[in-house]
Specification:
This protein is an alpha/beta fold. The chain has 15 helices and 12 strands. It has a 7-stranded parallel beta sheet, sandwiched between helices. Helix 1 packs across helix 11 and helix 9 (199-207) crosses helix 13. 47% of the residues are buried.
Length: 382
């Protein structure tokens, strides 16, 4: 049996670690030919390289020489700001992009330009540069976000022309039933009731900004107008998303609330393998609930759709401003309920200007303008 050659970008993060756990349980199916990560956990990065016999390792860290010394002479270490993009271009069967933030866009484009298929867990690639990414064709991208993986699978049940709408599910975060969002602490925001994720994604889930980003992502992945993309609160996080067809039938994808299911589906596609994730326990009782999202307390979804309908770089501005605001909240420099305010003011100020996105330079320019303004707004609100 031929092993599938995979590259994992962001290998030390939550998605990357779980992907390597899947590889470890299915060594006859996979061979890791490249990994990359930032400077946050070099010890784990080197351990992964040794454990999986990875021939090429990339890092943005300045300690690359120490890595070269510590690893076998047979391991090539690539360092610098473009390390992940270079590793994404390696000859392989699939690149899993699990990098956090819009810095993941360049590696996504590099992988596609090299002719590689991308298992995309970096939603910001589409939010910041959706037109650039989709120019390579949707057939080269397999979504890893649990919601988009679910939609991808549900859509196999009918023709695209027969879809009336898609429904993304949201856990609602830790504050779905809390009315006063003004005095929320960082510790409270990071205490997600269902998912174990990195701090930025966890805060985005608490503000439901994450769901706004996912709506933009769904628009690009499935070529759907925003009017056909909805979201509902589903606290149990078992139904990952649903597709409603024109005959009134709704197809849902269910699995336990962990990321191994969608990661494994993307890596094994177009097949399914055993030893990915335990199935649901159907001998036990289950109660699942669904509720509309309170747009007054959580206005991020409406703003995300507005930016998406503006088109061009409006969504890049939306995402960049949010990254600045979330970083400020995590650093105790901004209150939780002001995150949206910073994003909204930045979008309203900049989205009326030129928004064309022709290349990465255009995206970088728009993101820099958004971050600069967001930082000024933070200083004014201090």
């Amino acid at each position: 049996m031929t092993q599938k050659r995979i590259v994992i970008l962001g290998s030390t993060g939550s998605i990357g670690v779980q992907a390597l756990e899947i590889v470890a349980a299915n060594t006859h199916h996979f061979r890791v030919v490249g990994i990359s990560a930032g400077s946050g956990n070099l010890e784990l990065l080197m351990k992964q390289a040794e454990e999986f016999g990875v021939p090429v390792v990339g890092t943005t860290a300045t300690q690359a020489e120490a890595m070269r010394f510590a690893l076998s002479d047979e391991v090539e270490v690539i360092d610098g700001a473009d390390a992940s993009a270079e590793i994404a271009s390696l000859e392989c069967d699939i690149v899993l992009n699990a990098i956090n933030g819009s810095i993941g866009l360049a590696p996504t484009l590099a992988a596609l330009k090299a002719g590689n298929t991308v298992a995309l867990a970096n939603k910001e690639s589409l939010v910041a540069g959706g037109d650039l990414v989709m120019a390579y064709g949707a057939d080269r991208i397999i979504p890893v976000d649990s919601e988009h993986s679910a939609l991808y699978q549900c859509m196999l049940s009918g023709k695209r022309s027969e879809i009336s709408q898609v429904i993304l599910t949201a856990s609602g975060g830790p504050f779905r039933d809390r009315t006063d969002l003004s005095d929320i602490t960082v510790a409270e925001a990071l205490a997600h009731p269902t998912w174990a994720m990195g701090p930025v994604v966890t805060v985005n889930s608490a503000t439901l900004m994450n769901k706004g980003l996912e709506i933009i992502e769904a628009h690009y992945l499935f070529d759907l107008p925003y009017s056909q993309i909805q979201a509902v609160v589903h606290p149990q996080s078992v139904v990952h998303s649903m597709v409603e067809f024109i005959d009134g039938s709704t197809i849902a994808q269910l699995s336990p609330p962990n990321m191994k299911g969608p990661i494994g589906y993307a890596l094994t596609h177009p097949h399914r393998h055993a030893k990915i994730t335990p199935p649901m326990n159907w001998s036990a009782s289950h109660t699942w609930t669904f509720a509309p999202i309170d747009a007054v307390r959580f206005p991020a979804i409406s703003l995300a759709k507005h930016c998406g309908e503006l088109g061009g770089g409006a969504t890049a501005i939306f995402n960049a401003a949010n990254e600045v605001a979330v970083e400020a909240f995590l650093g105790a420099r901004l209150s939780f309920n002001k995150i949206f305010t910073i994003v909204e003011k930045t979008v309203n100020s900049l989205a009326s200007g030129p928004l064309s996105v022709r290349d990465l330079d255009d995206v970088s320019r728009l993101e820099k303008d958004a971050r600069d303004l967001a930082h000024r707004l933070l200083q004014e609100s201090a």
